[in-house]
Amino acid sequence: MYVQVAPSILAADFANLGRAVQHVTTDGADLIHADVMDGHFVPNLTFGAPVIASLKSYTQAPIDAHLMVSEPDRMLESVRAAGASIITVHAEACTHLQRTLADIRALGAEAGVALNPATPETVLDYIMDDFDLVLVMTVNPGFGGQSFIPAMLHKISTVRKKLNERGHRAVRIEVDGGINPVTAAACVKAGASILVAGSFVFGSENPAEAIRQLRGK
User: Fold this and answer.
1) Contact 134, 171 (CB under 8 A)
2) Residue 64's beta-bridge partner residues?
3) What's the confidence (pLDDT) of residue 28?
4) Which position among 64, 103, 132, 176 bears the catalytic label?
């Protein structure tokens, strides 16, 4: 299984964001992870569609927009128009989750559903045909640099088993929070195939080596 690495720009130098994204793309990043926060669903406030749009001239890598916002439906069209290839919404934020996921696909993007640490994987049971990836949060969302929650390894393996049993082997599992070579290896063993890493990549003196280490190479 090929493991994709998605550096989170939340940990990048915002004064030189375009160049930072350009460098990690050259260094081997598969995706660029954009954490959109509204200061309401999570306590932090980051950026929106204009920043995502500005990144397109610096990278050919797909942009993975993670909407940590209270009303994600209001942002879908603008984030897609800005160039996001993947749009992930939180199950906890969507009153009509199936419809939101269908709307993302109708816009031509891949649809992702994110689960906070305390959210059970049973949320997925009635929307199994409506998403392309599951984002298992391995920290509570809102801030970078948090410690990995070990209990999430069981959730990852349970989600992977659930997907396989329902014939959805192609659906990817993404993990976000506290990812380093040790936790990355454990997550991949449990069934994850996309690793979101912020400070480990952008805080490294050698991002290319950091990305290789996350892949276990």
Assistant:
1) yes
2) 33, 86
3) 97
4) 176
Residues with Cβ within 8 Å of 87's Cβ and at least 6 positions away in sequence, in order, are 65, 67, 76, 79, 80, 104, 107, 109, 110, 111, 112
Question: Of 183, 181, 166, 66, which is closest to residue 116 (Cα–Cα)?
Answer: 66
Best CATH choice for the domain 4-214 from the list 3.20.20.70, 2.40.100.10, 3.40.50.300, 3.80.30.20: 3.20.20.70
- Is there a catalytic annotation at residue 35? yes
Which residues of the chain are modeled with pLDDT < 50?
none
Write out pLDDT tens, residues 45-79: 999 999 999 999 999 999 999 999 999 999 999 99
- Cα–Cα distance list, 11 to 28, 133, 144 (Å): 17, 23, 7
Q: Is 68 helix (H, G, I), strand (E, B) or coil?
A: strand
3-class SS of residue 153: helix
Question: Distance between CA 184 and CA 14 in Å, rounded?
Answer: 26
Q: Which of 27, 30, 35, 103 is catalytic?
A: 35
Give residue-wise pLDDT tens across range 6-31.
999 999 999 999 999 999 999 999 99
